[in-house]
Amino acid sequence: GYTLAALANNWMAMFGATDDIPGHYELAEVQANQSIERGDVSGIAQTVLAHVRIQRHEWEGALEAVREATNLRPSCDITYGVAASVMRYLGDWEAAVGYADRAARLSPLFASWYRNVWANAEFIGGNYAAAADLAEGVVAENEDDLEALLTLAAAQSALGRKRHATAAVDHARKSRPGLTTGSLADLPYRDHEDLDRFIRELKSAGLA
Questions:
Q1: What was the pLDDT predicted at 1?
Q2: d(CA 127, CA 64)
């Protein structure tokens, strides 16, 4: 039905399994709303809406969807993972860490993504050593994980470990040819200072 279709389109956009990411997000939103209008109370539609809205910088709408989703799906790891991602972008890094920890404990299926979000939340909170440790753990399992490499580089730079930071940036470039700080400028952090600090450390690590 509409619920599973919304979830599928959201995942396709989220993991880059389509050449039309905005189009799949738009379709996911339409289908999620159709699901809610037809009385679906599984919470999956709200989880989808939370992710879609944060990508569009619709911060209050994303927060509302997170609250509804976690209320409807109190034992779903994916819902808590999305909630963690939304909260780190909203700047509530402590809530993000809590959600990511809960998601990781509920299921190992997407544990790398949860730890990625957790690492980035620690970076936002200024806990650079924790961010580096978490991101390094993800990279140890998948050396081409771009999000982990970027968080690792930014955290290592903030810690003054320039050689390690540069190595992470170099690997990120190999993983994603053409990567620049400009390609990260639309990351949906509500507080511009959070995004500026992230990009500033990446530039310090050598990412143009």
A1: 87
A2: 27
b/e sequence 85-115, b meaning 16+ C-beta within 10 Å: bbbbbbbbbebbbbbbebbbebeeeebbbbb
End-to-end alpha carbon distance in the chain: 45
CB 207 within 8 A of CB 180: yes
**Which tokens in the block code for residue 101?**
């920890």
Distance CA 149, CA 168 (A): 6
Low-confidence residues in the chain, pLDDT < 50: none
Q: 121 and 143 in contact (C-beta within 8 Å)?
A: no
pTM higher than 0.90: yes
How buried is 57 (Cβ within 10 angstroms: 0-12 exposed, 13-18 middle, 19+ buried)? middle
> How far, in Å, CA of 172 to CA of 177, rounded?
8
In this structure, the chain runs to a length of 208
3-state secondary structure of 74: coil
Nearest to 32 by CA among 14, 13, 12, 8: 8
b/e sequence 130-146, b meaning 16+ C-beta within 10 Å: bbbebbbbbbeeeeebe
Write down the pLDDT at residue 169. Answer: 98
At residue 15, the pLDDT reads 81
Residues in contact with 176: Cβ distance below 8 Å, sequence separation at least 6, in sequence order: 146
